[in-house]
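User: Can you predict the 3D structure for this chain?
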Amino acid sequence: MLDETSEIHPLFAGAPSTTEFKKLRKRLVRNTREAIEAYGMIEPDAKWLVCLSGGKDSYTLLAILFELQWRGLLPVDILACNLDQGQPGFPATVLPKFLEERGVPHRIEYQDTYSIVTDKVPQGRTYCALCSRLRRANLYRIAREEGCTAVVLGHHRDDMLETFFMNLFHGGKLASMPPKLLNDEGDLFVYRPLAHVAEVDCERFARAMGYPIIPCDLCGSQDGLQRQQIKGMLDQWEANAPGRRQVIFKALTNTNASHMLDPNLFDFKALQRTKP
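Assistant: Here is the predicted structure, written as structure tokens:
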């Protein structure tokens, strides 16, 4: 499918011609299509606000979605969006230049949420939770202003696994990031089309394409984050037993409620013997 035409989207300009890269690109497209179809992400007259942070995951997301749209496999309008949250040292010109050079419809929004976060969060605590809430509120607002039906994020399979173990170890619940979510107001979907994509594939793809990566440590070093610890644990498991991440992810898609312990998911009291 990917090589049947000589045409190529500008987001893939300069793509390596190696067999290895072609296999990677096809795998990314296939995994993304699987998630979009499995979780019912396409609706009539849809317009997606695709959030671009400048990290490897969001670059990969944008490229693959445009690839699918380019091939007629994703009948939605796409608007790329970067929310500049005012972090010190953020290279504000990188993403506008990248998007303009490739003819990608986009909106760049500046909102200094960084000052709010640093003012409200006590010293020594992590910024992530409040920062995420403020970012999400602004993205919802932008989506409504642009007439979008969904906010599309670049979280991948490994993000979902890490969130699962965060909730398991620290929240006392079995939950992960949903691939499809309806916001509280009921007017916007939140999609994660990379739900089936491995982080290592995003990293390989973005590196091979030479995308201008903006580091994710602009808020300063905050060592000891729980998520980093979970990531280290998963890395060790993967090193000891290659494929472990995918097995755990498959388990998240194969839940047997009657073999868990939540009476809200399965009515244990209603179980009756068929023979006295």
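The mean pLDDT is 90. Residues 19-38 form the longest helix (20 residues).
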